[in-house]
Design goal:
The chain is an all-alpha fold. Helices cover 80% and strands 0% of the residues. The chain has 5 helices and no strands.
């Protein structure tokens, strides 16, 4: 039986999952609900960059990444709630969420750097650090 999620030491993993679920799913859903507004914002944000002609496609990719990342944490949390994290998939779901978080944050970081929004890029570092802490908790719990 996988003991990762059946004791109190899993609390950081659960809270990291809740945090990233809210972060990525809200951001992805916001981009879907206000796609036009986001497109206008990103078109202005990436003016005079190499992304200038690809904003529409990149916004679609970013929206997809954020939604899939958020959904991976949602599925992990549902697995944890419904079967108390005793399935063999619990660790894999959390690991997948962390990997997707890392990719998504790196994509966002690249965009901020190329747009010369250095403050925005620095702010993403906090999210990246939380992802690395998640990997650390996953390693400790094995």
């Amino acid at each position: 039986m996988n003991t990762l999620l059946i004791n109190l030491s899993c609390s950081p993993i659960i809270f990291i999952s809740i945090f990233f679920l809210i972060l990525f799913l809200q951001s992805g859903v916001d981009k879907i609900m206000d796609f036009g507004g986001n497109l206008n914002y990103f078109t202005t944000h990436f003016k005079n960059t190499i992304f200038e002609k690809f904003v529409f496609l990149l916004l679609l990719v970013l929206t997809f990444l954020e939604c899939v990342t958020g959904l991976s944490f949602l599925i992990f949390l549902l697995d944890w709630i419904l079967i108390q994290g005793t399935s063999n998939y619990s660790v894999d779901l959390f690991y997948l969420g962390l990997q997707l978080s890392t990719i998504t944050i790196c994509v966002l970081f690249l965009g901020q750097r190329l747009a010369k929004d250095y403050v925005g890029a620095v702010n993403l570092s906090v999210y990246f650090l939380i992802t690395l802490i998640g990997f650390l908790f996953l390693l400790i719990s094995k």
